[in-house]
């Protein structure tokens, strides 16, 4: 019998240092920080600018080029606003809506009316459903199939966000549900949801427990264990339909001794193993 040698996938790496979607601009430094932890170089870098819709349109073109080149891609943000560009670009290149596993402490499903802060990084899921603020929603409309969208690790949200996702049939699995049901059952459900076409992975670093990953803009206690998450995502980048991954909300200025960046690098390497 032949030994099965794991083949490390080489993702098409794109740096996306947009950080005007939240308070502070800490995540702008994340791509350079992750470059040090991951090694290697990016194939593309979207130059930073203030306007979110313009940035996301340029990111979308980069991601579309990565998909056309055969992918898979790895987008390193930036705050979570970048998701509008990442998934609009991927879906546009493929010509069909995507499934999406969205790992996050928050629902990111506000619009301007419901958001207490008005921060764009709390709105990308609404935009991907075509419902958020105008220019971003128009860019992302139709990129994601709500029935194949799963939010995982959630533990902080406002009722209007919950209502929006429930109305659109989006599945939300809280961090508490992961602990109660166990990773095996949760990942079986996630895979069943994603099945049926191309799909992607969006990792908001604040999904992780702040004791292991303090380097984020909006930490919430009670998060996912980084080591377990890396284990359950090991090799998922080689599974059928996978198109790419994005990482958002790493804030190196709030990190402690690089522990958050190391946790993220471990997860990224696992996904592309
Ligand atoms: Mn987020």
From TrEMBL:
<feature type="binding site">
    <location>
        <position position="106"/>
    </location>
    <ligand>
        <name>Mn(2+)</name>
    </ligand>
</feature>
<keyword id="KW-0479">Metal-binding</keyword>
<keyword id="KW-0378">Hydrolase</keyword>
<dbReference type="GO" id="GO:0005829">
    <property type="term" value="C:cytosol"/>
</dbReference>
<protein>
    <submittedName>
        <fullName>Arginase</fullName>
    </submittedName>
</protein>
<dbReference type="InterPro" id="IPR020855">
    <property type="entry name" value="Ureohydrolase_Mn_BS"/>
</dbReference>
<feature type="binding site">
    <location>
        <position position="108"/>
    </location>
    <ligand>
        <name>Mn(2+)</name>
    </ligand>
</feature>
<dbReference type="InterPro" id="IPR023696">
    <property type="entry name" value="Ureohydrolase_dom_sf"/>
</dbReference>
<feature type="binding site">
    <location>
        <position position="104"/>
    </location>
    <ligand>
        <name>Mn(2+)</name>
    </ligand>
</feature>
<dbReference type="InterPro" id="IPR006035">
    <property type="entry name" value="Ureohydrolase"/>
</dbReference>
<feature type="binding site">
    <location>
        <position position="80"/>
    </location>
    <ligand>
        <name>Mn(2+)</name>
    </ligand>
</feature>
<feature type="binding site">
    <location>
        <position position="204"/>
    </location>
    <ligand>
        <name>Mn(2+)</name>
    </ligand>
</feature>
<dbReference type="GO" id="GO:0004053">
    <property type="term" value="F:arginase activity"/>
</dbReference>
<comment type="similarity">
    <text>Belongs to the arginase family.</text>
</comment>
<dbReference type="GO" id="GO:0030145">
    <property type="term" value="F:manganese ion binding"/>
</dbReference>
<feature type="binding site">
    <location>
        <position position="206"/>
    </location>
    <ligand>
        <name>Mn(2+)</name>
    </ligand>
</feature>
<keyword id="KW-0464">Manganese</keyword>
<dbReference type="Pfam" id="PF00491">
    <property type="entry name" value="Arginase"/>
</dbReference>
């Amino acid at each position: 019998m032949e030994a099965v040698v794991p083949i490390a996938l080489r993702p098409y790496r794109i740096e996306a240092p947009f950080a005007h979607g939240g308070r502070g601009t800490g995540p702008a430094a994340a791509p350079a920080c992750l470059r040090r932890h991951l090694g290697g170089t990016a194939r593309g870098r979207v130059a930073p600018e203030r306007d979110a819709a313009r940035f996301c349109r340029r990111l979308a073109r980069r991601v579309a080029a990565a998909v056309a080149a055969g992918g898979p891609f790895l987008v390193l943000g930036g705050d979570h606003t970048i998701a509008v560009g990442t998934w609009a670009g991927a879906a546009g290149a493929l010509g069909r809506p995507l499934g999406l596993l969205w790992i996050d402490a928050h629902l990111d499903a506000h619009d301007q009316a419901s958001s207490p802060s008005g921060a764009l990084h709390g709105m990308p899921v609404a935009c991907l459903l075509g419902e958020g603020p105008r220019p971003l929603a128009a860019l992302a409309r139709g990129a994601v199939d709500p029935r194949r969208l799963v939010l995982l690790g959630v533990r902080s949200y406002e009722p209007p966000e919950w209502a929006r996702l429930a109305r659109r049939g989006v599945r939300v699995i809280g961090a508490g549900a992961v602990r109660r049901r166990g990773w095996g059952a949760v990942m079986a459900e996630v895979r069943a949801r994603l099945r049926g076409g191309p799909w992607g992975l969006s990792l908001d670093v604040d999904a992780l427990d702040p004791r292991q990953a303090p380097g984020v803009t909006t930490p919430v206690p009670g998060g996912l264990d980084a080591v377990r998450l890396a284990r359950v995502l090991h090799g998922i980048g080689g599974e059928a339909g996978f198109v790419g991954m994005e990482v958002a909300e790493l804030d190196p200025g709030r990190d402690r001794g690089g522990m958050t960046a190391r946790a993220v690098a471990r997860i990224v390497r696992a996904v592309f193993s």
